[in-house]
Amino acid sequence: MMFEDEKVEFKEIFVSDIYKEVIAFANTDGGVILVGVNDNGEEVGLDDIDETYTRITNGIRDAILPDVTMFIKYSLEKGKVIRIEIGEGAYKPYYLKSKGLKPSGVYVRQGASSAPASQDQIRQMIKYADGDIFEKLRSLNQDLTFQYAAEVFEKKNLPFIKEKYFQLGIKSHELGLFTNLGLLLSDQCPHTVKVAVFADDENTIFKDKKEFSGSILQQLEETFQYLQLCNQNHAVISGLERKDHWDYKEAAMREALLNALIHRDYNYSGSIIININSQQMEFISIGGLLAGISKEDIRNGISLSRNSKLAEIFHRLRFIESYGTGIRRIYSLYKNCGRQPDITITPNSFKIVLPNMNVAENTMTIADNSLSAVEQPPFHVTQQMQKILDSLSEHGEISIKDVQKLLDIKNTRAYVIMKKLTDAGMIQKNGRGKNQTYRLL
Questions:
Q1: Nearest alpha carbon to residue 53 among 84, 7, 10
Q2: Where are the beta strands (DSSP E) in 359-407?
Q3: Integer Cα distance of 24 and 201 in angstroms
Q4: Domain limits at 63?
Q5: Cis amide leading into 66 (omega within 30)
Q6: pLDDT per position as a tens digit, 274-307
Q7: Taking the model in full, what pTM does it have?
Q8: Which of 19, 237, 328, 404 is most enclosed, with most CB atoms within 10 A?
Q9: pLDDT tens digits, 119-149
Q10: Whether residues 47 and 164 fall in one domain
């Protein structure tokens, strides 16, 4: 008498559950299914063996992905039992087309039964079959859309049609399934960027925080727009000329953000973190440097990309000029700044800190003044002062009460601000007492 075990399964009649058994054997070490044999191992035979044979072969072909038929051999035993020999598949995991790449659709053999595979088992099978390069692996989510990516490609006058998916690496040539690179570019991308603005330099008191999701291209655009809102301008007026002094160079923020998005390790589900306070802006991404690359190599422009296909797409979209120049460009932008960017690398993270250039410049000015009392620091126009100057440009004059109302401050603070502007030679007082007003000089 025959018995069921990890290599043998009995089916008295054809039922759709047979697909789960085929998947389980293909995902494990192979096995045999005997249709027409009951649970006791007795050959009961099939009534219409030709019809059953056709239903089995067609069903296995249509219900299972990837195509498993090349690993299956059919035969008849004694003219009444269908023998299905399943070999271990080369493109694991195999799954029910109707369920997708998730435990409800992926099965493995455990003893004499077939059981749903865990998420970890599914990932391990994908790595074993596809290799260990994240962006080339099959995406666990195959229900992907690319609305935002298509719009970006269209703006850049680049084609983004289904026929190009294979060339871009969004779909695999072997199986025709979406890759993890496709997942990153899709509207369903599970990874995010989190930005936090702090009121203190120890990053303990939140002023604001945002999380950006969607396609990685959408995260790039929306995160950068938000960083620009956090970038303050301290204008300097010298005579009739106004010079803008931003806390951060836009190009430096852009390169740091691109570096975090392109080089992070997407095998892990954590978010890219961007912290901002009055002193600096720091970008923290998951994943240290690849083996053989040092911090000095990065500064010298040597680049070994963890996600080469993603970098290629960013280059194609002209977000990056060439490989390995981003970090070098950041340091170049800080060439004449009193404080340089800083890179911290651990086995699991990469952090680059951009100093606030205005804070660094003020620190240098104070240091210079301690050596020479002759040189005077430039006068910096604060945001409150700029509001007053803008109001004077529009209305011609302003009173202390107007200043209090405009800035929502108390009388004493209003007098202090107006005195600073007066001493700087930017405005002048007219009249006295209650009738006193200020005009642009």
A1: 84
A2: 397-398
A3: 56
A4: 8-129
A5: yes
A6: 999 999 999 999 998 876 677 787 777 776 778 9
A7: 0.67
A8: 19
A9: 989 988 888 877 778 999 999 999 999 999 9
A10: no
